Amino acid sequence: VWGNRAALERCFTTALESGFDVGVLMIDYPDVAGCDPTGWDTSVDGFIAAHKATGCPAVVASTLPELLPEPVRARALENGLAPLQGITETVAALGAAAAYPQRRTALLAEGAAALALPGPAAGAGEARLLDEWVSKQALARHGLALPDGRRVSGADAPTAAKEIGFPVVLKAAGPDLAHKTEAGAVALGLDSEAAVATAVEEMTARLERDGRTAESFLVERMVPGALAELIVGVKRDPAFGLALVLGSGGVLVELLRDSATLLLPTDRGAVEAALAGLKVAPLIAGFRGRPKGDLGAVIDAVMAVADYAEANRERLVELDVNPLLVLPEGKGAVAVDALIRLSG
Q1: Is the Cβ–Cβ distance between 231 and 248 less than 8 Å?
Q2: Read out DSSP for 191-208?
Q3: pTM for the whole thing?
Q4: Cis ω on the peptide bond leading into residue 323 (within 30° of 0)?
């Protein structure tokens, strides 16, 4: 029936009225200058007519992205068909469309109150960065577990460390110290008051050489025995609003590029499924005889971050908890660093 418009329309109509959820015409236009596209155009026209006659959702797709020309894509859109470029992309798009009603049903069953997507704006005014201490305390009020810690002056850091219990972590806090590791503003495993005092002196001098200032210091108890490190973040997507990002965390987050994204609001089941798809998942599950991680506590931590984001959705621009330390089963999951950026 190639080139026979009437026969093509009958063929496509018979297929689209057979009770399927969607019909896909897979067609590759020749990428050759001067080639007459009439035969291909006739197929697309017949498919468009069949779509209009049956009302069945329809897709025009190519096996490779470059084999569906722009005029064909525009004609498809004008007539209510989805043009998709590449067989991998087509299958992914169909899968997402198929999963959408199931996802919506699950959210409604969980009692999600905000299924409508918010606007992309995050309020008026310039965004401001909350320091680590303020960020952590805000998240703790929504249920995020933190290590025992204090915010003190440099002079009081040794005493605070003794009260908390050694070993401790020392961090400098200031308006230009969002990335403390790169600035040399973190000291780990300090096991005495003298070690803390020395670290304060060295850190202060190093920052002053770089033209930076430590307004205060965070002293926190070291968290031993972590089985894995995660990053839990919230970004504001310009099209969809707030999105929750889960992935492998720590200093290797950009190297590993292991992450999953969930639109907010979300639920525990979706979070658990997203975690299971990460490369780091075997470490949490108990890789090669190692202890299992506290998955329930990890999900609690993620939901605490999501709860904060929902409560501040009009102003939240960005949020990062990195790393979230995954401890053995029954020991919890602890956030050892966090930053929040709010508008207004």
Answers
A1: yes
A2: -SHHHHHHHHHHHHHHHH
A3: 0.70
A4: yes
